[in-house]
Design goal:
This protein is α+β, with helices and mostly antiparallel strands. The protein has helices at 15-53, 80-98, 191-198, 203-208, 233-262, 269-301, 316-320, 338-341, 344-366, 411-428; strands spanning 2-12, 114-119, 123-125, 128-129, 136-144, 149-156, 166-172, 175-187, 210-214, 221-223, 228-229, 308-312, 326-327, 333-334, 370-374, 399-401, 408-410. It has two domains: 2-187 and 440-480, no CATH class; 200-428, no CATH class.
């Protein structure tokens, strides 16, 4: 099985370049949204009058009808490939819908993260090389065509990459990013093979090589071998500060909005400024959580002692949702613990939890290991030594004392051990079945390749770019080797 690696690098366009790229983003979004709106219109029409028309509108990637010198002159100020890719993105989204991988394409909003997808006609990677030594000094990306030049954009590559077929350039909270994906060069075993391999171990052998991670409120993640993963104190302090900041900005925005309404004018420049600041302070927390999730999952998966990772299958989405409004017997509104649940800590933690599990999963696949999620029912009340389940076992938030055998432990550590045990049993008993993974294959039009070569990052077998041969930028092939060497015979536990 072949996997993919995604790359997301910070890039630094100048102000003028950023303005041009924003225009490209806007035009691509316009085409995409035009396709969505048109499709909706025709489907509604077809529902009412299919007998009269007799056919549904085709799902194609034509877009020339939206370009009008009088109505949409600005569409002519961007390269046609940018517009075409907007139509291609829409069609790919429809392709995913047809495969049952998602809903119909929806209108893309103008707020939040924005990006433009550009294909190889419009960009070129050109490293800055020291002419004397041949050393690569920096990364540079040239964007644009002859008619619409954007120029050189510097970017920071924090890891090795290969030149992709298409890239995305986007902006989030005022920071620009370059992102793309590469198909990995090395083959990894697929899930069924990994499961089969793990089932060769005995229960004790596998248990010694299993990581059971219990997600808690005191410590974000506690392992069955006594590991504890937590944010560092600086991050914690800064996150708290950012939360205070966020609240201040939200109040400020509310004030600015109110005064605008009072004076019967649209919100002004100061409102926009506050909005930008707010987005930035949100971004910090997001970055910290992602950093934590990456470092934690990496430490867990790349530990040579871990072959199997077990987590609870928590409904993270449900946990972060607002609780329903409650009424007491007199029909009055009662307390529903909303304030307590909205606790900042919990929110931060749940977000980091979800990400940690997701990242562990994909990192495990790349390392030829397995990460599973199990039913969390009563894991916190079960004794890891004797299996006795009782609510009284949990004497306090952090303490666990078994009422049957007297086993004493840290509650999170005990839960981690229970999870590991349950996971191993579930796997060895055959209860766990590897899932058929659906790949989002993108369908390709047969003879219309001229209009839109659907050059997707996820089209299998396309990753070996022809211009890669002899390219000095092709670095890091030796790093792509699988660091994990699989032992065929189960090793005995010490
Ligand atoms: Zn016990």
């Amino acid at each position: 099985m072949q996997t993919q690696t995604g790359f997301r690098f910070r890039c630094y366009p100048t102000h003028a370049q950023a303005q041009t790229l924003l225009r490209w983003i806007g035009c691509q979004r316009f085409i995409y949204n035009a396709k969505v709106a048109e499709d909706r219109y025709y489907r509604k029409f077809a529902r009412k009058a299919l007998d009269l028309t007799g056919f549904y509108p085709p799902v194609d990637q034509q877009y020339s009808r939206y370009i009008d010198p009088d109505l949409t002159p600005w569409l002519q100020e961007v390269p046609s490939q940018v517009l075409r890719n907007g139509a291609v993105r829409w069609r790919q989204a429809y392709g995913r819908y047809f495969q049952g991988l998602g809903g119909r394409p929806v209108i893309k909003k103008k707020v939040g993260r924005q990006a433009v997808w550009i294909t190889s006609e419009l960009f070129m990677f050109s490293p800055i090389v020291n002419t004397q030594t041949g050393e690569i000094l920096g990364n540079r990306l040239t964007i644009g065509s002859k008619k619409f030049p954007v120029g050189d954009i510097l970017f920071h590559a924090h890891k090795d990459y290969r030149i992709p077929n298409s890239i995305r350039i986007g902006v989030e909270a005022g920071q620009w990013f370059l992102s793309f994906s590469n198909e990995d060069l090395s083959q990894v075993p697929d899930e069924a093979e990994t499961v089969e391999w793990l089932r060769k171990f005995s229960e004790e052998e596998l248990l010694a090589r299993t990581f059971g991670g219990d997600r808690g409120v005191e410590i974000p993640l506690a392992g069955n071998h006594g590991e504890a993963f937590d944010f560092d104190p600086v991050q914690k302090a800064r996150m708290e500060k950012k939360v205070r900041q966020t609240k201040r900005y939200q109040r400020q925005m509310a004030r600015q909005r109110t005064s605008a309404v009072k004076e019967k004018r649209p919100t002004g420049a100061n409102y926009r400024k506050t909005k930008k600041r707010l987005a930035k302070s949100h971004q910090y927390g997001k970055n910290v959580r992602e950093d934590f999730a990456h470092k934690t999952s990496r430490a867990i998966v790349h530990n040579p002692e871990h072959f199997l990772m077990v987590y609870e299958d928590l409904n993270v989405h449900g946990m972060t949702k607002k609780p329903k409004a409650k009424k007491d017997e007199n029909g009055k509104w009662a307390r529903n613990q909303a304030a307590a649940k909205a606790g900042l800590n919990k929110k931060i933690l749940t977000a980091a939890w979800g990400k940690t599990v997701t990242f562990t999963k994909y990192k495990a696949v790349k390392a030829g290991k397995l990460c599973i999620k199990i039913n969390p029912y009563q894991t916190s009340q079960e004794c890891a030594e004797c299996g006795h389940i009782h609510p009284d076992n949990r004497v306090s938030q952090s303490e666990f004392v078994c009422q049957a055998c007297g086993h004493q432990d840290n509650a999170d550590h005990n839960a981690g051990r229970v999870l590991a045990k349950r996971g191993v049993r579930w796997l060895l008993s055959g209860g766990y079945q590897p899932k058929e993974s659906k790949r989002c294959g993108i369908f390709r039009q047969k003879e219309e390749a001229v209009i839109g070569p659907v050059r997707s990052e996820s089209t299998p077998g396309e990753s070996i770019v022809s211009r890669e041969a002899g390219n000095s930028l092709t670095r890091g092939t030796e790093n792509q080797e699988n660091p994990f060497v699989r032992r065929e015979t189960p090793a005995t536990t010490a």
